[in-house]
Amino acid sequence: MRTSAKRDRRRPAPPEGRTGLRFTAAIAALTLALAAATLAALAWGSVRIPTADVIQILTGNADPSPYRTIVLDVRLPRVILGAAVGAGLAVVGTTLQALVRNPLADPFLLGVSSGASAAAVSVIVLGLGAGVATTVTIPTASFAGAFLALLVVYALAREPGGGFTTTRLILAGVAVSYVLAALTSLILVVSARADHLKEVLYWTLGGLGSARWDMLPLPLTVLAVGTALLIALARPLDLLLVGEEGATVLGLDTARFRAGVFVLTSLVTGVLVAHSGAIGFVGLMVPHAARMLVGAAHRVLLPVAALMGAVFLVVADLAARTVAAPQDIPVGVLTALTGGPFFLWLLRRGRAREGAQA
């Protein structure tokens, strides 16, 4: 036990040697990839804008023109929101996978996004608040819905001994998601308004088309604060990978820590879903790809996952705008088409591992 404890204490140590080099290289490469994806997203779409013109507009050297309005007022807020949502979902997915020690954990699969969506749809249909009030009521309702959904899934999946299994966790998440989806549909049917149906349908599929400059401060602030706090909690997250008993032996109050992080991840998810709708599978796929680059230590994993999630969603939204241009496909549809096969691959790999261990 002492040898194991010493080994576990070394795991959260600052990156050095090869790990440090991989981390630095990954951050540099992903930063360049995000810059390239941003430039492409600003230039491509139903209206193609020369890259040189986009650069001039961004540097303030371009004359007023329709291109300037498209880049600065339409596409740039959308790109920034997409990067923030992608980064936040990836960070939340990475954290949830550590909290429940399950590689299949994800805000979408665990019903967190569905809870946020159901609460936000209720606010939209009931017309609670207007103008500035809406920017407060919808994120608040989304946070409450996300947190309550996560609590229900946690209670349903938890075994008498306190652990989790993949089957119980996924079944609980799917069950809660279906119930909340049915509740959302019921609210829409009862409202009997065509404008609500069209607006909410697009929103529940996940989309960034409603991005505006005045709606960016809240998700950016929550993303920055939430990510900083989770990086500061990297050591306890690493300890959870040891197991419940091992983390307790090493001095972690697992119940209190999980409760606090559940609240934090629900807050981040709720605010992001309130601005982008339910975009699934980003928090499932990105953490696995990030671990392949820099390993499982959360001090380096979380920043890499955040940048990778930002790049992924900016590129996915660019594809959603250009694949069937001028038709704007909800980006959540494309992430689901990508994430569904990835989820099945993870299930197949997990079953193969269980068979090998048996």
Question: What would a concise description of this structure say?
Answer:
With 358 residues, this protein is mainly α. Helix content is 77%, strand content 0%. Helix 2 (17-43) packs antiparallel against helix 4 (66-99) and helix 4 (66-99) packs parallel to helix 9.
Topology:
Layout: H1 2-10, H2 17-43, H3 51-59, H4 66-99, H5 112-126, H6 132-157, H7 166-191, H8 194-205, H9 217-232, H10 234-240, H11 244-249, H12 254-276, H13 282-294, H14 298-322, H15 331-357
Describe the structure.
- By secondary structure, this protein is mostly helical.
- It has helices at residues 2-10, 17-43, 51-59, 66-99, 112-126, 132-157, 166-191, 194-205, 217-232, 234-240, 244-249, 254-276, 282-294, 298-322, 331-357.
- Helix 2 runs antiparallel to helix 4 (66-99) and helix 6 packs across helix 12 (254-276).
- The chain is globular.
- It starts with a helix and ends with a helix.
- Residues 1-15 have low confidence and may be disordered.
